[in-house]
Design brief:
0% strand; single chain; mainly alpha
């Protein structure tokens, strides 16, 4: 394993930590936390519960991202494919959870 792989893994961990930070910010927010970039959040009935759900979602995403970075420590390019495909699937999953569960549950009817 070379130094480049270790640096890549550290940067990968930093990205995961950023998402965990976003999740922690959601827990403390008084306004509904947004999910989609540059889009207004739908009207929400129970803002504290919604923000807790969003905080859990972002923290879980960050931890999952960090776990998906572990193949970098192997230092084999084939294993990096596992990380890349895993992040794509994790991102699709987080969008599905948001749209089907969180937004549907807390949106004003």
């Amino acid at each position: 394993m070379t130094t480049g792989w270790v640096i890549g893994f550290i940067l990968w961990l930093a990205a995961g930590a950023l998402f965990i930070g976003i999740g922690l910010k959601c827990f403390k927010s008084k306004e509904p936390s947004g999910f989609w970039a540059n889009a207004e959040t739908a009207p929400i009935e129970d803002i504290p519960s919604y923000n807790r759900a969003m905080g859990k979602l972002w923290c879980a995403y960050g931890v999952g991202l960090m776990i998906l970075g572990l193949p970098m420590l192997v230092g084999n390019r084939v294993w990096i494919l596992v990380s890349c495909v895993g992040v794509m699937l994790e991102t699709i999953l987080i969008m599905m959870i948001y749209v089907l569960k969180i937004e549907g549950k807390y949106r004003k009817k």
